[in-house]
Amino acid sequence: MNDIIAPLAKTGFIDPEINLAFAALIGFGFGFFLERAGFGSAKKLTDQWFGSDWSVFRVMFTGIVVAMLGILTLDEMGIMPFENLYLNQTFLAPQALGGILMGVGFVIGGYCPGTSFVGLASGKLDAIFYIFGLSLGVIVFAEVWDFIAPFLQIGAMGRVTLFGFFGTSPWVIAGIVVMIAIGGTKFANWFEAKQKG
Amino acid sequence: MTDEAQSRKPYWPNLAAGIGLGLVLLATYYVAGRGLGGSGAVARATAGALHQVMPGHIEEVSYFSRYFVDGQIKWSDWLIFQTIGVFLGGFFASLTAGRFGASVDKGPQISRKERFYHAMLGGGIMGLGARIAKGCTSGQGLSGGATLALGSWVFLLCLFIGGFVAAIFFRRLWR
Fold first, then answer.
1. Number of Cα atoms under 13 Å in the Cβ half of residue A68
2. Nearest residue in A to B173, CA atom
């Protein structure tokens, strides 16, 4: 039990104020790497959807794989129990519809919410309009929330992981995710080469 | 080639940027026990800004009540600080790479005005979509993906389907 040291903010290792300072620091790193990946550019981001540049897929899945392996390893070592981490609850219908809307909005708007701040920070004027649009979307959602609340519960399953759902070890799922990342990258490289002719 | 183009450094390889991003995400869980978010701060800031203009109405909107403590918007929030950090990190990175400068990203076939209109429209669709899904590409995609949340992988799949299908219909915007 004494081995459990993370998450630092939950085990009392750091105060809430320090946690907020870390939030800014972590955000800085997030913004930095997004920019270095080229994701401050809507042109670079949307190339993903036309198949000519699969950087969004490759960077995203590399990030997912690195963080996933770290999280599972720290859990295995007893340093950071998985149960103590915040996990997105599953709401099948809203997550499916929200995902499709995000994909469509990405193509039309050129950014996603996180990258739009990197675009803004890089001087992209279109990012200002995008962020203003985000706000409008939030307002529309909040105003109709009382009416659509029942829909938002369709497929509610609570805190459920892929390994819990399939009744297998997290490492089996992790292996599959790694294979999706590698296989997807191979496909992406082939597709890019084919498009260039 | 102009001087400006020469001073612009190339983007990092996908693998390097992805590993950096993954380590930041891992640090987020290690420190805060939660994931990254892209859209949460926008929702909170929107509620806060509107509360300045029309406090009576905003206090009646039940969805926004989560952002208030004792009738005041709670600004000292993890995602607010994180998002300020994202902006500063992006600013520092673009500056040091010689990429900072006022510009508009758009396809060759549309005007700036058309681009601004579509940026706002797309932003609106994503602002709505992110609230419906309870998270965006960062909160559901990256964070939920790395923690192997079932619903987040449904989200990821639908995000890529939505993007690839929409690209067929909105080709003119970017090509």
1. 28
2. A108
